[in-house]
Each structure stands twice: as structure tokens, then as C-alpha cells.
Amino acid sequence: MLLGSIEAGGTKFVCAVGNEDYRTMDKTQFPTTTPEETLQKCIDYFKKFDDLKAIGISSFGPIELRKNSPKYGYITNTPKPGWADVDFVGTIKKAFDVPIHWTTDVNGSAYGEYVISTLFNEHLNSLVYYTIGTGVGAGAIVNGQFIGDLGHPEMGHVRLKRHPDDLDFKGICPYHGDCLEGLVSGPTFEARTGKKGQDVPLTDHVWDIMAFYVAQAAIQVTLTLRPGKIVFGGGVVSEEFLKKVRGQFDKLMNGYINVGKLEDYIVMPAIKENGSATFGDFALALLEYRK
Ligand code: ZN
């Protein structure tokens, strides 16, 4: 049997099929254009496989995931042109009469990292996954389950104490200005320095400012959920950057609680090449199939 994965991002879609061991057997990707064209590409891709038993979708959002809502399966009020109020699950379901698991991109990634940690016998009950890229978001698993009742978490938009050397920067979130996303997403590099993130050397003070904010996010989620691990993915994150984040975390937490070795607590994804969501989608598709 084969399981399908759609990782729906604001700039690109990754479609893949895998087996029951969550091993990717085939994969493709294409840019996110109009909903009609992009979802049709997903359908055309999966039509090539005749043993598809279930599909896991991890989508950019906001999305509706309350099963009792008439808009379940929709991308809701995204500012991305053309994509607001799009019936994602319904469109895929019309083409494939298989169980579909529907969640956010970061939830899918969180689940992938959670499942692989259990395969490595880490016995985590909970995990938080942040992506810091074009936008910032996070998914959380607690006791093996996603959290959120009225909707999915929006941890990318929490408020933070400002860095004293960054007070002139207003932030770029269209809703809040200087929320976490408004202060540390990839496009903030250009807004602050006029340079793209990859052209700003890690010795630049702006990285310390970024680490100060990301560490605060890690502290907030640590104090709120006490997860077993926090994973940081996305284009802005590197091991060198996480070293700075751990340093700031340690300083700001000031010994208040023990999270074990910080190198094992604040980490890069265990699944390489941005594969966390695809891996998670396979696992969630299999759960849905077995229901
Ligand atoms: Zn915001």
C-alpha cells in the first residue's frame, strides 16, 4: 500500500508517496500558483499511483480544522492572494475516495519529528516544532495529540520583550508589527539591514537580536507546555544560530527550571532536507487509514 503526502507551502508544494515505514518512494514539487492549478497538479501527481490508501495534508494557513465546521478542510483568511476560502480537502477528496488527514504545515512537521523521536526510543510525550522562514509558526504535540480547540495554535504571533538595540525597528507583521513573526521571519533581514538573510554573516549583531527573540519564544513555550523538546526548522535556522539561541535561553531562564542538556532540548530537525512534514503526513495518513 502507498500513503500520500501534500506539504502545502505558500511558495511551493511538495507531493510524495511513501510506504508504511514512512519511507518516501517518490516525490515531486512545484510552485504555489492559483488554487485551481496547484491542486490539480496534486491530483495529477497522485493519479499515477493506483495503490494509494490515504493522504496526509499539511498546509499553510490559517486553516479550518474543526470537524464540525462547514468550512472544515478549507484554507480560511490567508492574506495570500487567491487562496482565502479555498476548499482544499474537498477538492482532493473529490478526486480520491480515501481517508485524508488535514492539519497545518507546522503540525505535520511536529508530528514527523515526534514520530521519529519515538523510533529512536526517545520516549517523548510532547514536542514543539517552530519554523522560521518566510513566516513563523509552530505546532505542538502533547501526549501524542495536537493541541487547539477553537483552532490551531498561532505561536508565531506571540508578543515579546524588545531588544534594547532594536527599538527603532517596527516589525513587519501586517497584523501586529513587532510580534515574533514580525521580528524574526526571513524578510526581516531585508527590512532591517537591506540585505538578504543569507548575506548577513553570523557575526553580525542582528543575529544576536534574532536569537534574543527566538529564545523568548522557546522560554514561553517551555513555561506554558513543558515539552520534551523544541525543534527549530526553516530557512533562517542553522546550528550556529541555535547556539546563540541556547545561550540567550540559558541567560533569560536564569536557572528557574531544568530542561536537561540544552543541546538536546533546542535542536534542529532530526529529519533532514525539510522532510519532517512529509514524514509526519505519512504517519498521519496511516493513522487515518487505520481508523
Ligand atoms: Zn503577528
Secondary-structure-derived class: alpha/beta
Overall form: globular
Distance between the termini: 16 Å
What name is given to the CATH topology of the largest domain?
Nucleotidyltransferase, domain 5
Low-confidence stretches: none
Write out the strand line-up for the largest beta sheet, numbering strands in chain order.
3-2-1-4-7
Q: Which CATH architecture of the largest domain?
A: 2-Layer Sandwich
What is the assigned CATH homologous superfamily of the largest domain?
ATPase, nucleotide binding domain
Radius of gyration (CA) equals 19 Å
Number of alpha- plus pi-helical segments: 9
Q: What is the name of the CATH class of the largest domain? A: Alpha Beta
Number of domains: 2
Give a verbal description of the structure.
The protein is of the alpha/beta class. The protein folds into 2 domains: 2-104, Nucleotidyltransferase, domain 5; 121-267, ATPase, nucleotide binding domain (Nucleotidyltransferase, domain 5, 2-Layer Sandwich), CATH 3.30.420. The protein has 9 helices and 12 strands. The strands form 3 sheets. The protein has a 5-stranded mixed beta sheet, with helices on both faces. The protein has a 5-stranded mixed beta sheet with strand order 10-9-8-11-12, with helices on both faces. The protein has a two-stranded antiparallel sheet with strand order 5-6. Helix 1 runs parallel beside helix 2. The longest helix has 21 residues, at 205-225. The relative contact order is 0.16. The model has no long low-confidence stretch (mean pLDDT 96). The structure holds zinc ion (ZN). Zinc ion binds next to helix 4. Zinc ion is lined by residues 157, 173, 175-176, 179, 181-182.
